[in-house]
Structure formats: structure tokens, C-alpha cells
């Protein structure tokens, strides 16, 4: 019985991996090979203080991610027109940024922050699941992880997932998009970005998800298709 269950598990995992592999093939062929952005998963090191605003779509994961089962796969190298790059809120006004600053700079307890009370209300009153936490105990355990993360980055510096050889989460980096004027807009990874800003790190690695068409059109006047990479575009 145990052997049969294990075989079913292996079959399920293999099917899932094949699904992801086929998905990436279609995605790469359909969007990237024929597109302008080359090597779209390239890590670019940027000054965290240059990420001043959030995209107005930052809460809409469908805009930036494909979801297959429990996996979030980022849409990278895509070029979109529209007003998605306008009227975003300041990152430094987010309650998570303010809470991390209050906790580690002002030595205020988590329970005294607006962020804590908002998440507590969403979990206990609204019945929402936040960061995989369905109860207050799990959320408070998550806060302990944030404390460990803060101290690790402060003591040992910021390391990308690729530098840490965590192949399971190789694309789990701070994610940004680029506006029509070339501004970096926050998409995902708010905890790490907040920590980087508060510690005053010079550079952090990011992955660019979506580029505004107007910005790409202006860059095409200077770069040939073969030379356009995330790094070269952000140096434009």
C-alpha cells in the first residue's frame, strides 16, 4: 500500500514537471524568442531607493504571474501598453515598510504596528489566508522569520536565490516593472525590498517582469534587437 502510494506520488510529480516543461516551451517560443527582450530572466542590480512607487497592478497577481497549481510563474520579458504604470502608491508608505522600520529602527513590537492589526483582522475576522497563514499563530511565526531574514541580510549581506544555490526558488527575487519613463515600479518581494531600504543597501538584484511599450520604443532607437537585455535597457 505504501509502495503504491509512493508510485502515485512520483507519477503525479512527474506529470507536474512535464506540464511545467511544456508550459515554459510554449511561453518561451510564444513570447520571448520572437520578442525584443533577450535573456529576460537576467538579474539586474539596482539601487533599492530608485524603486519609489508600486505599480497600480502590484496587487493583481494575474497581471504579472501565470499560476499553475500552487506555482506562481512570473511573466517576464513582456511588453505592454496602457496606463498600468500610472498613479501607484509610494512604497515607503506601505504599512509593511513602516512596520519593519518601526520594529527594527524604533524597537516597537509587531503587535503595536498597523500592519500587524491589518493582517490579524484579515485572518481572524475576514477568514483570509495571508502568506500561507490561516491563523494568528502561523502569522506570528512568519514574523519571526522576518526577524531572522532582517538580521541575516544585515549581518551577511543580500544574496540572490541564485547565489544561495536554491534551485527550487531560482526566480524568487524582488520583481519590478518598468514604466514608460524608465522608472522602476515595485511588483513583488516587499519584505526584502523594505529591509534593503531600511538597512540602506547600495544594490539589490531584481527581475523585470513587464516593460512599458513606450519605453521600449524609445530604447529601440539606440539598441539593436540582439543587444537589448534587461541590464542594457536599465542603463539606457
Oligomer: single chain
Structural class estimated from helices and strands: alpha/beta
Count of individual beta strands: 8
Task: Specify the overall morphology.
Answer: globular
What is the N-to-C order of secondary-structure elements (H for helix, E for strand)?
Answer: HEEHEEEHHHEEHEHH
Biggest sheet layout = 6 strands, mixed
The whole-number mean of residue pLDDT values reads: 80
Weakly predicted, low-confidence segments: 29-34
What percent of the residues sit in helical stretches (DSSP H or I)? 40-55%
Kindly provide the radius of gyration, computed on alpha-carbon positions and rounded to a whole number of angstroms. Answer: 20 Å
**How many structurally independent domains?**
1
Number of helices: 8
End-to-end C-alpha gap: 61 Å
Beta-strand level of the residues, as a percent range? 15-25%
Describe this structure in words.
The chain has about 240 residues and is α/β, with parallel strands linked by helices. The chain has one domain (about 35-235). Helix content is about 40%, strand content about 15%. The protein has helices at about 1-30, 60-65, 95-105, 115-125, 135-155, 190-200, 215-220, 230-235, and strands spanning about 45, 50-55, 65-70, 70-75, 80, 175-180, 185-190, 205-210. The strands form two sheets. Strands 1, 2, 5, 6, 7 and 8 form a six-stranded mixed beta sheet that branches. Helix 5 (about 135-155) packs across helix 6 (about 190-200). Mean pLDDT is about 80; it is low at about 30-35.
Amino acid at each position: 500500500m505504501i509502495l503504491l502510494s509512493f508510485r502515485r506520488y512520483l507519477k503525479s510529480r512527474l506529470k507536474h514537471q512535464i506540464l511545467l516543461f511544456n508550459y515554459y516551451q510554449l511561453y518561451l517560443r510564444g513570447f520571448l524568442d520572437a520578442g525584443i527582450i533577450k535573456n529576460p530572466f537576467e538579474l539586474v542590480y539596482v539601487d533599492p531607493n530608485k524603486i519609489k512607487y508600486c505599480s497600480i497592478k502590484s496587487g493583481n497577481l494575474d497581471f504579472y504571474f501565470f499560476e499553475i497549481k500552487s506555482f506562481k510563474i512570473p511573466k517576464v520579458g513582456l511588453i505592454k501598453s496602457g496606463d498600468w504604470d500610472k498613479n501607484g502608491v509610494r512604497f515607503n508608505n506601505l504599512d509593511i515598510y513602516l512596520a519593519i522600520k518601526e520594529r527594527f529602527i524604533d524597537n516597537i513590537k509587531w503587535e503595536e504596528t498597523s500592519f500587524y492589526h491589518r493582517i490579524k483582522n484579515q485572518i481572524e475576522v475576514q477568514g483570509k489566508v495571508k502568506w500561507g497563514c490561516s491563523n494568528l499563530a502561523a502569522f506570528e511565526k512568519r514574523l519571526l522569520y522576518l526577524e531572522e531574514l532582517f538580521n541575516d541580510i544585515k549581518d551577511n549581506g543580500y544574496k540572490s536565490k541564485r547565489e544561495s544555490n536554491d534551485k527550487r526558488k531560482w526566480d524568487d527575487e524582488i520583481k519590478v516593472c518598468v514604466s514608460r519613463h524608465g522608472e522602476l515600479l515595485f511588483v513583488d518581494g516587499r519584505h526584502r525590498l523594505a529591509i534593503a531600504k531600511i538597512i540602506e543597501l547600495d544594490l539589490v538584484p531584481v527581475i523585470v517582469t513587464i516593460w512599458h511599450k513606450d519605453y521600449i520604443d524609445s530604447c529601440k532607437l539606440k539598441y539593436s534587437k540582439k543587444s537589448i537585455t534587461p541590464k542594457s535597457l536599465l542603463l539606457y
